[in-house]
Amino acid sequence: MKRFIPLFILTGLLFGQDVKTLYLFELEDESEYVGELIADTPDNVTIKRMDGSVVNIPAYKVIKRTKIDESQWDQESGEIIFGNLHDSRYFFSPSAFALEQGEGYSMNAYSLYWAFQYGIDDNISLGAGASVFGLTSLSAKYTVPSNTEDFNFAVGWFWVGNPFIEEGKSIINIPFTVATWGDKEKNISSGFGYNLEADKHPLVLNIGGTNRMSRSTALVFELWGFNYTSYNTGTSYNTREKVTNTLIYGGPGVRVLRKKTKKRLFGLFKQNNYAGSNVIDFQIFFLHTDGETIGPLPMIGASKRF
Question: Is 75 helix (H, G, I), strand (E, B) or coil?
Fold first, then answer.
């Protein structure tokens, strides 16, 4: 039996030579190299690129190196198949995935509504938004730690109001829960909330989902349904009547994941200046309220992960 031990050791060494540790090297001129680290000294970094060529780079020019899995490299296109960096939400509605500490995103719709969300630790994020129409929003989300890869659960709070009006400053005030099934590239979420500002039927329902189709595109869908309270002015300005409105909103769309981000935000935030940090969203949505349906209408938005 002993004579077989060296054979096992030799076999392990031979197969071990096929295992590659790959890195994405980002340089100060914003160029990138993907390959194996051959040598690393205080003066030079030697890299064996994926095409087999070997380059020597002055060490001071390498500003960041990120370990990547060999399966992320697409030999045909010569690109990294990057992960979904915008997994914590769909177009607008939340998933149960969390932002990492020190990371976040900013987003806008038609450049009329702007919002951001920031991870204060690996499970808690806070956000705010504002529109040119005076509406503002506040949000918070806590993702419950889980050992299960294909199921995540989160609780949160979402508020929308207008601080510039006397009555009805708070339009939407929703504590919510959301559950997500699937991984970050392909998943579906179901959310439930309770609108404290709705006089009748305060239950809030929300579903969303995404399916990564290619390096640069993903299908995204979301749908909302809830009641909210507005105020009608009577014959006198001082006469106001509370009205409960039903709103159903949402639809399908496409998310385009742009190849890379050029700006580094002056080092203020943890950097994700690689492919997929920026996305552009195209959504076709319907709006149903008070028995009337409007749509389909186009929605164009953009988001940046920082």
Answer: coil
Which structure tokens are listed for 254? Answer: 């496409």
Q: What is the CATH number of domain 104-305?
A: 2.40.160.40
Question: Tokens standing for 260?
Answer: 């890379």
pLDDT at 7 over 50: no
Q: Hey, what CATH topology would domain 2-80 get?
A: SH3 type barrels. (2.30.30)
Cβ atoms within 10 Å, residue 26: 21
| Burial (CB count within 10 angstroms: exposed 0-12, middle 13-18, buried 19+), residue 90 | buried
- pLDDT score of 166: 64
Is the bond into 296 cis (omega within 30 degrees of 0)? yes
For the chain, give every domain's residue range. 2-80, 104-305
Query: How many residues make up the chain in this entry?
Result: 306
**What pTM, to 2 d.p., does this model score?**
0.75
